[in-house]
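<discrete_fold_record>
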Amino acid sequence: MLDNGVGKLEGATASRSGLNTTIVEALAKQLGARIETVSSAGGMSVSLTSSVAAPLI
């Protein structure tokens, strides 16, 4: 996923994750995937990487 918003503010902390983050983390866990986020002034990208193809249900 990629957007051109403000990105994640550097040094920002939250007491809990947002709903979208929670959903993505749950799906990644089910797939045994790794989440990578890159944030900049030009936006934010989130990548899911899995070394094993998961069957489509």
Observations:
- The chain has a mean pLDDT of 76.
- The CA atoms of residues 7 and 40 lie 6 Å apart.
